[in-house]
Amino acid sequence: MKQFIGPDEQGPSAGVITDHFVFTAASAIDPATRRRAAEAETIRDEVRIILDRLRAVLAEADLGLEDLTKITVWLSEEQYRFEFIPAYVEFMPGAPYPSRGLFTIGLVGDARLQIDAIAARPSARGAHPQMVHLPAAQAGADAYSAGIDFGDLVYADATALDPVALARVPGAESIAGETGVALDRLAQTLGAAGLGLGDVVKVNCYLADGAYRDEFRAAFDARFPGVKPVRLTQVCDLAGDARVLVDVIAAH
Q1: Which residue in 236, 240, 213, 246 sits closest to 103, CA to CA?
Q2: Residue 77 predicted with pLDDT over 90
Q3: Would you place residue 122 in the very low, low, confident or very high pLDDT band (cuts 50, 70, 90)?
Q4: CA atoms of 199 and 17, how far apart (whole Å)
Q5: Nearest Cα to 164, choosing from 137, 189, 141?
Q6: Does the domain spanning 1-128 belong to CATH 3.10.310.10?
């Protein structure tokens, strides 16, 4: 089953409903003017508008923001992160939060923020996704889940940052070390779902500088000595002083 939600004549669909998931995305852009909506004066306003738009799409599938399993947040400037996070916590229904990746990248028009989202529909394994939280050693990361276990898949991502200070933790001095810490954290998260790195089927890797690619690849490949998952590596700005972020999908 596949149902498109709210396509207009000249633009993309607002969302797509499948048997197990809803795929959607939103910005605070007015589709008529291709500029930010008049009420989107602050980042807080922009977050509220975007979450309202996501909520309206999810309602078409009888879901809500609490059913989100994974979001990717794109900011046009790193400085907006400090306004985004408290606004996000304010307008979301509350914990547990979905898995979240946050990146700085160029956006179209005068958009400062976009959110790409996946929500889970009820299945035989339960009406709501099982949230897999960060290990206790990373206490303070209370605005996102380290991973989401739903159906046959687990979504997870990790950096080597302290979630409060957004500074690299000990052991992450080199790119190889940073990659190792991120993969260790992923292994802990997947372990909470009864999986391991060997169950990873798809990886998106984000580096703060293309010059890190060779050292990252060597460290990553050393942790996957057998058949390796599908992998894309991209260069973009990352939160805090992160140089490596690893985003994975693992299968039961």
Answers
A1: 236
A2: yes
A3: confident
A4: 26
A5: 141
A6: no
The answer to whether the pTM exceeds 0.90 is: no
Mean of pLDDT values over 175-201: 94
CATH tag, 132-252 = 3.30.1330.40
Strands 99-104 and 35-36: what pairing? unpaired
Residues of each domain in the chain carrying CATH 3.30.1330.40 = 1-128, 132-252
Question: CA-based diameter of the chain, in Å?
Answer: 53
Question: What confidence score (pLDDT) does residue 140 get?
Answer: 55
Mean pLDDT over 163-184 rounds to 93
- The neighbour count for residue 170, using CB atoms within 10 Å, is 9
Peptide bond between residue 225 and the one before it cis (omega within 30 degrees of 0): no
DSSP 92-143: S--SSPPEEEEEE---STT--EEEEEEEEPPBTTBSSPEEEPPPGGGTT-TT
